[in-house]
Write a structure and sequence with these properties.
Blueprint lengths: L4 H9 L17 E7 L3 H14 L4 E4 L15 E2 L8 H13 L1 H5 L10 E5 L2 H16 L5 E4 L1 H7 L14 E5 L3 E2 L2 H14 L3 E3 L4 E7 L2 E7 L2 E10 L5 H6 L8 E10 L9 E4 L4 E5 L5 E11 L7 H14 L8 E11 L6 E4 L5 E5 L9 H14 L13 H4 L6 H4 L7
Parallel strand pairs: 1-2, 1-11, 2-8, 4-13, 11-18
Antiparallel strand pairs: 3-7, 4-6, 5-6, 9-10, 10-11, 12-15, 12-16, 13-14, 14-15, 17-18
Helix pairs in contact: 2-7, 2-10, 3-10
């Protein structure tokens, strides 16, 4: 739908009372074919693809707060596919391809910006490791990986402290198709798309219990009453452990805080997303001009959406080391997201031992960039009862057997590329 500049001005001057909501606000029905618990990016995309790809329309998404109020709105918006481990590489490659067609598919501006990601290296060992990763990306069909040497980087990123005495820049892996997207818009686009296909998006509806009879899920208890369902998907990121406990399950995950920061708006400074290989710091510039950056986990289990001062200090030190002029910019705010960390740094998507109950968790640092493929594959799992071929390695039982673990933490792709 097209709107004239005059219409936009009129709405702005009259309190935007003439716009219609992007989605309905329905009351929950007594029963659905499927319920998705969690109204974030992964939950909304799951509902969308269940309707679009599998023709399921009698679906409800249950969100205890408001849609997009969790991690999908509390991240640094990075989209990438430069993973190395078998299984993860294919999954995130598929996700990036979905990202590239997402705005056309949803008919919604998600502000996708493939500005490129450059992962800096600061030692011979790091250089060898990232060249290997680039070769793995080429071997698996992602041919946009290019290693840039110091002189190339000085021309491309002249604002960095290239000759830092402690951490000189030895080069960087350039992932051309990576970039950023507007996190809120992604949630809104999937919400509108799901709603248009008949999905009920029910906000302020907290799940307080999961009804199970003889090993079969029958529905859920909520703050808005009992709702029956044949299938239930648990898609709540850092709250997965608490939710699974309602079904008598203990998951192999911990919830940790990951902080992010944004500065005041500045004139265009940088075109790419850049990661600092020695300080767990990454930075990009938003469309509003703010420099968006973050670091590593706070490293203590928490459900708080805030951080601590030592981590703030560490991130600021790393930012100053890499890009000294950032010290002139004022930091406007910081925030924290609740990361559901798995033991091997890779996600879990599987059926549970309870018939009809499905699990999507353990995204570690990869949650936002996985939104399209997570929903695509979770919808396949819930609709067919079988894992999609690119998530076949992400079964829950790998932690029980010790076989098939995907130690993405050890490759460094998670730590340095949040």
């Amino acid at each position: 739908m097209r709107f004239s500049a005059l219409r936009v001005l009129k709405e702005g001057l009259t309190g935007n009372k003439g716009w219609t909501p992007h989605w309905r606000d329905p009351a929950p029905k007594p029963e659905y074919d499927a319920i998705i618990i969690g109204g974030g990016g992964h939950g909304l995309s799951t509902a969308y693809y269940l309707a679009k790809n599998h023709g399921m329309t009698n679906i409800a998404v249950l969100e205890k707060g408001y849609l997009g109020g969790g991690n999908v709105g509390r991240n640094t918006t990075i989209v990438r596919a430069n993973y190395m481990m078998e299984g993860n590489s294919q999954f995130y490659s598929h996700s990036l391809k979905l990202w590239e067609g997402l705005e056309q598919d949803l008919n919604y501006n998600a502000m996708m910006s493939q500005r490129g990601i450059i992962n800096l290296v600061h030692s011979d060992g790091q250089r060898d490791a990232f060249i290997r990763r680039g070769n793995m990306m080429h071997a698996q069909g992602d041919t946009d990986a290019e290693f840039l040497f110091p002189e190339q980087l000085k021309k491309k990123l002249p604002y960095l402290n290239h000759d830092n005495i402690r951490f000189p820049i030895y080069g960087g892996l350039y992932h051309k198709r990576g970039g950023t997207a507007r996190h809120d818009a992604v949630a809104w686009g999937y919400a509108r798309g799901a709603d248009q296909r008949g999905v009920d998006l029910i906000q302020n509806c907290e799940v307080t219990g999961i009804d199970i009879v003889d090993g079969v899920v029958k529905g859920v208890q909520t703050t808005r009453g009992a709702i029956k369902a044949k299938k239930v998907g648990m898609v709540v990121a850092g709250r997965s452990g608490q939710l699974a406990a309602l079904a008598g399950m203990r998951l192999p995950i911990e919830s940790h805080v990951l902080q992010a920061f944004v500065t005041e708006g500045l004139k265009p400074v940088m075109d790419n997303v850049v990661t600092f290989g020695m300080g767990h710091m990454y930075i990009s510039q938003s469309d509003k001009g703010g420099l968006v950056f973050g670091g590593d986990l706070d490293f203590y289990a928490s459900y708080a959406q805030r951080g601590n001062l030592p981590t703030k200090e560490h991130v600021m030190e790393a930012a100053m080391c890499l890009m000294p002029q950032i010290g002139k910019a004022r930091v406007l705010r910081s925030w924290g997201g609740i990361m559901d960390m798995s033991p091997d740094g890779s996600f879990i998507m599987d059926k549970t031992h309870i018939d009809g109950l499905f699990l999507n968790t353990g995204w570690c640092y990869g949650g936002f960039k996985a939104v399209p493929a997570s929903g695509y594959c979770m919808a396949h799992l819930m609709a067919t009862g079988q894992s999609h071929e690119i998530t076949a390695r992400h079964r829950l039982n790998r932690f029980e057997t010790g076989r098939g673990l995907m130690d993405e933490e050890a490759t460094g792709s998670q730590h340095n590329l949040h």
